[in-house]
Amino acid sequence: MTIHAEPSHDTLQPLAFCPLARAGNRRSFLLLIPSRRLDPPVDETRDHILGASDAPITLVEYGSYACPHCRAASETIASLRDRLGDRMRYVFRHRPLANNDLARRAAEMAECATREQFWKVHVELMARSPTLTEDDLAAVKAELYLDAPEVSERARARVDEDERTARANGVTLTPTFFINGRRYDGPWDEATLSDAMLGTLGHRVRATALDFASWGPSAGVLLLVATVLALVLSNSPVGDAFAEFWHRELGFVVDAWHFGMSLRHWVNDGLLTIFFLVVGLEIKREFTVGHLANSRSAALPIAAAVGGMIVPALMYLLLSPAGPLARGWGVPMATDTAFAVALIVMMGRRVPLELRVFLTAAAIVDDIGAILVVAVFYAADLHIGYLAAAAGTLVVLAFLNRSHVYLVLPYILIGVVLWACIHAGGLHATLAGVLLALFIPTRPPPNLHTLMMQADAILLEEAKHGGEVLRHGPSLPALNALDFIHDRLESPADRLLRRAGARSSYFVLPIFALANAGVVLSGDVLAGRGPLVLAIMAGLVLGKPLGLIVASMVAVRTGIADKPEAYSWRQLAGAGALAGIGFTMSLFIAGQAFPSAGDFAVAKIAILAASLCAGTIGTIILWNAKSPTDA
């Protein structure tokens, strides 16, 4: 999620070129992202509008008369209206600068005007002087409101309403624009804003992608689509070709040395390392500044996660047949957060935010358990020499971290070497992603005021040369300096989590689902393997919520943890049921536990069926459960 700070507009102007500080944990903070759609939509009877009602382009601005950026943007808007003519409709809504009495009084003054006078007042307040002053308010009032009464309650109420809708739309700085009802977060220069308004192909693709990513269930929906596609293709006339595709070998040869793996192994051992890198970064974040940093707040989700791992594993061992199939006890231990979060977001206000946080934190602990299970219990034959080399790369990573090397590239390059050593050493190569995440450095928060002043000085100096002959833009030293300022806004760990997190959710996991979720659905596949299906389904559908709820109750009754009052035990039971959606990690562990293709196919069917049942049960419970505050 993007975290916007309330800016001081007399110093923040240069930071329009860069994003503000961000928090990287997509799985928990994405739930808090406001919609990118304008709410309420433009109302002809209420809003201040310039242009025809049937204009194909509507630009809505939340602005302030005391904001220097809004005053500068007004010139851009005037140029756009000249250029687009009747194709453009412009709407202005008030969002006075916080803690600025002059900005508030200017907005109320504009609202005291009649609808016919408003735009004249608006232009005067925006353009009368470079910076809004008390003299401007007095002069405008004297020229246009000689007989006007004091500010009316209607004017105050109108500004209050605009401020309320600004908060509801996630507006935290001015100006903020909406184009045809969709929030625009790009640069405010005329060329870029014009591209967005005219809907060029590049902007449409980017805007659609951002809209999809900001929709809470998006990652789960994409994962579901990939899963359904894999199942459809596997059970279609091209099923054999689809299966054969994932078994094709891909590798490289250097002289007499050859290395290659099937495409499925490249996905499971290589591409999935990005997913585990993101998991590792999320774990690191949660235990340093997140919900698991405080022992008291972390106690309940940790206890719940431990119970939610132990009970399903024991239930599997009780129900599974003896022999090689008993190795699958790790399959029902995991929770697939993407699907669980998607269902929670779709239920909206029926699920308290505190319960979402609880489930996400428990899933983080779940991930730790799954990683340990894979590393300890599903390793192949170990080769000490390669593992020693892996330990050596960890020493190098630790040295870089302790030396305050904040460039990400050296860590990634050494991480590739670590991956190769772990793969050759017999451990699952994806473990490299988690280990690498532990050494990606964090940094103390930057002094934003100092950075803003520095950027301001750079841009103001560059602006002096804007009209020089044979000079078309900022100088290279200035661009480099601005890059350094931009890099300082985030720690390397946060930046990598923000960038890799999206790739993990929208590329890695769907590809993993395509490569692993495909299975031929027929009665012959299940023949003789009923106990395996029963063990996996019972572990996920029954064992997971049972272990989570019992462990939570024990932790609360013994005083180890406190349950927030915001959600009831019934709602916690619904979250426990959703935790039975195993999918990604369950499929991954099943691939390690069952070398037999037949056993793996049956495990996939059981995981898919159990995840469907768990999701349905959890949704029904949460949909009908009431929060204590609603009782």
Automatic annotation (TrEMBL):
GO biological process: regulation of pH
Keywords per UniProt: Antiport, Cell membrane, Ion transport, Membrane, Plasmid, Sodium, Sodium transport, Transmembrane, Transmembrane helix, Transport
InterPro entries referenced in this protein's UniProt entry, alphabetically: Na/H_antiporter_dom_sf (IPR023171), NhaA (IPR004670), Thioredoxin-like_fold (IPR012336), Thioredoxin-like_sf (IPR036249)
Protein's cellular compartments: Cell inner membrane; Cell membrane
Gene Ontology MF: a single term: sodium:proton antiporter activity
SUPFAM superfamilies: Thioredoxin-like
Gene Ontology cellular component list: plasma membrane
Bilayer disposition of the protein: Multi-pass membrane protein
Membrane-traversing stretches: 212-233, 266-283, 298-319, 325-345, 357-378, 384-400, 412-440, 506-526, 533-556, 568-589, 601-623
Top-level taxon in the UniProt lineage: Bacteria
Keyword set includes Disulfide bond: no
Record domain Thioredoxin-like fold: where: 46-195
Catalyzed reactions: Na(+)(in) + 2 H(+)(out) = Na(+)(out) + 2 H(+)(in)
Similarity remark: Belongs to the NhaA Na(+)/H(+) (TC 2.A.33) antiporter family.
Function: Na(+)/H(+) antiporter that extrudes sodium in exchange for external protons.
Protein name, UniProt field: Na(+)/H(+) antiporter NhaA
Organism of derivation: Sinorhizobium mexicanum
Gene designation per UniProt: nhaA
